[in-house]
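Lab notebook, bench 4. Still working through the backlog of constructs that have no structural model yet. Next entry is a single chain of 162 residues. Request: give me the structure tokens for it.
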Amino acid sequence: MRESKRGWTLIELVMVIVVISILASISIVKINDVMQADRVAAAVSDVNIIKRALMSYFGDNIAFPTDAAAGADPGLAPDYIDSWPAENPWNGEYEYNYGTYANFNFDGTAGNEVYISINKGSSDLTSETCAEVDNLLDDGDIADGRVRSDGSTYIYVYVSEG
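Model written out:
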């Protein structure tokens, strides 16, 4: 008697590969979504820590620190913040800004503006991401309010009138 050996047919193998490919692509998309949500949450947390440190500085000095270069601590560490964040979640820098800026008069009054820039680095900073940050910090509209963006290279977060 001859034993029957049943193996996989070519069609069955192709179907298994197709199903595995579909599941893998869905997983990759979901992983990217989770990673992006983590970046947004980290940026919002960093900005809130910096804002609290700036307000404490102001409370002690009755003035805000002078303007600082991108990535530079404006004088908050170590008294008001452990350390200035080395980079933001998109591999760019946080920048503290203090001064009169014609393009960004956040509150509509004359005077210096105090705001934090989240500058794009090597990772994608999309308009959707900017809107997510804005939604958590302000109103979700990157064109106006206390958080503004061009949708691809920076996010400006208003702190106070200087």
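Notes after review: The longest helix spans residues 10-61. The mean pLDDT is 85. Flag for follow-up if needed.
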